[in-house]
Amino acid sequence: MEIIDVNNLEKLKALNNQSVLRVVNEFISLCKPSKVTVITDSQEDIDYVRKRAIELGEETKLNLNGHTIHYDGFFTMSNHDQARDKGNTQVLVSKGEEDSYPWINTMERENGLKEILNLMDGCMKNHECVIRFFCLGPKDSRFSILALQLTDSFYVAHSEDILYRAGYEEFKKLNGSDDFFYFIHSSGELTGDPPVTKNLDKRRIYIDLKEGRVLSVNNQYAGNSLGLKKLALRLGIYKANNEDWLTEHYFVMGVHPKGKNRSSYFCGAFPSACGKTSTAMLPEQTIVGDDIAYLRVWEDGYAHSVNIEKGIFGIIKDVNAKDDPVIFDALTTPRETIFSNVLVKDGKCYWIGDGRNTPDDGNNYSGNWYKGKKDIEGRDIPHAHPNARYTIGIEELDNADQNLHNPDGVPVHGIFYGGRDSDTMPPVLESIDWEHGVFLGASIESETTSATLGAEGVRTQQPMANLDFMVVPLGKYIENHQEFGKRLEHPPKVFATNYFLKSKEGKYLNGILDKLCWVIWAEGRVHNDFKAIHTPIGKIPLYFDLKILFKQYLDKDYKEEEYIEQFSIRPTKILEKLERIELMYKKEKGVPDFFWNILETQRNRVIELKKEFNSEVISPILFQK
Ligand code: SPV
Ligand code: MN
């Protein structure tokens, strides 16, 4: 039997694209699937993908209409597939270039290709391979890049239908050009029920910048397997930074202040599990995207931005009716949703921090689960994984922004940068100007979380929350940000946020929804609604304005003591942070002068401040003249 039938072959040929045929031929011959199915943009083809994900056991239906559960492989705590695998993700570079990237794993291209192509030989044996076409960004848009995906996982293919815009018809418009990214993925040999990747020790994700492609094998977790997500982000960063635009790990949201009859758009970069999606999904605001954006300098003098996705692959931990009402409602009502790595009991999902009673048993990512179950290293297995996720489309949410598919994107009025920082930076800080904003983004620090494999709770530097994906030298990337802003007549105002400030006793100082007030304040700053207090590290809100916002938006009495504790400047902590930043950037070649100048100026001002007040905690009231 031919592995590709006439009908499927016709679908390929109709694209009139030799480069697509070349890629398909090369990888079908190498991976040796038993069958090849080509998926167009037709509903019939897309339904086929959903049906196969269920038939093959990669997804199982749950009680609510459209809901399914998928599990990624779990063997021991140190070898599982519930997060991005940084260690086995390698960027393939030319000989001699290996040292250009101190922050990421690199491998000499020829060696890397040899290894992974060898692992991929026969990796789809007895599997059906699907060929998919997507569009990263809105259709018919100057922003967008086309993407070809081959995978033997119908969970991957189904997730991509929810997350990305169909692109088969867009590929026809290429007129034979090879101007597209491509992604080859295989779960490799499978084991168990549900079927999970057997050989996690042979998990490899190799990024081939030269060819604009990523090869990924022996994994299922979306951050490793879905070509269009973090794998395309890396290719996008490479392309943008060698041209004149930006690819960023940004959400994009519409901010709609009460009673103002206006909307503004904000982007935001936060490392994993630092409140990025929940910011983009704040009540009464609208979402364009929650993870990855392309930005270009536009004719109106603003930066314009598009979401390259159309869905959300969000962390489900701590989503509950009180703290994340919009997401919670979306996840507990019928609609197409893939849950991953949560507990299922009687067809219903449970996760950590869902605000409900947890059943004592059920099925989770470790198989049959019961309270007190231990992994083979003797540690408790929680009922749901801390990095358990949900996949939903944005379009059908009530808070979807009307410009989600606008080919011109949305004008960016402001940018947030946030990290997980318990003791140094205030909840919100406005930059002095664009370059200082780049500095604030470049100096995000965060404690590690469960979204990547490895230890949690370690403070790491996270420039623009993009370090995991930084496939160009960091100095060049920072300089490109500076240049990008210089070309804008109206550069976005930049704000650093910190939702994770703690008291001396270790208690969070802010409620989870307090971020709404920081966002609304920032929006007001863009339109000069509020004055700000100038401090040596940037601008902060006046108590009076926040008091009103807390009352108006959260019906909370925001006390002056709370404000003083949250917005005090802590000179020693800030000097320590500046030192860590300096240490990191010193390892990097080609960091632009403006960065060092800002660092020095900030340091001198903070040293003076410390001398002047002779205190470790300086109240914001003291800066108010
Ligand atoms: C993140 O970790 O930043 C995510 C999820 O958005 S992942 O797909 O794993 O990258
Ligand atoms: Mn992300």
Number-wise, the strands total 36
Mean pLDDT: 96
**What integer value in Å does the Rg equal?**
24 Å
Query: Helix tally?
Result: 17
| Shape label | globular
Detailed description of the structure:
With 625 residues, this protein is of the alpha+beta class. Helices cover 29% and strands 24% of the residues. The chain contains 17 helices and 36 strands. The strands form ten sheets. Strands 1, 6, 7, 8, 9, 10, 11, 14 and 15 form a nine-stranded mixed sheet that branches. A six-stranded mixed sheet has the order 19-17-18-30-34-31, sandwiched between helices. A hairpin with a 5-residue loop joins strand 2 and strand 3 (67-70). The longest helix is centred in the C-terminal third of the chain and has 21 residues, at 593-613. The radius of gyration is 24 Å and the shape is globular. The mean pLDDT is 96. Sulfopyruvate binds next to helix 7 and helix 8.
Write the layout of secondary structure elements.
Elements lengths: L5 H8 L4 H14 L3 E4 L4 H13 L4 E2 L5 E4 L3 E3 L2 E2 L8 E5 L12 E3 H12 L7 E9 L8 E7 L2 H10 L1 E2 L1 H5 L7 E7 L3 E2 L4 E2 L6 E5 L4 E5 L4 H4 L1 H15 L4 E3 L2 E5 L8 E6 L6 H5 L5 E4 L3 E5 L5 E5 L3 E5 L9 H7 L5 E4 L2 E3 L2 E3 L10 E4 L2 E4 L18 E5 L16 E2 L2 E6 L8 E3 L3 H9 L2 E3 L11 E3 L12 H13 L6 E6 L16 H12 L5 E4 L2 E4 L1 H12 L5 H8 L3 H16 L6 H21 L12
The structure holds sulfopyruvate (SPV) and manganese (II) ion.
Quick structural summary:
The chain has 625 residues and is α+β, with helices and mostly antiparallel strands. Strands 1, 6, 7, 8, 9, 10, 11, 14 and 15 form a 9-stranded mixed beta sheet that branches. The protein has a 6-stranded mixed beta sheet with strand order 19-17-18-30-34-31, with helices on both faces. Strands 2-3-23-28-22 form a 5-stranded mixed beta sheet, covered by helices on one side.
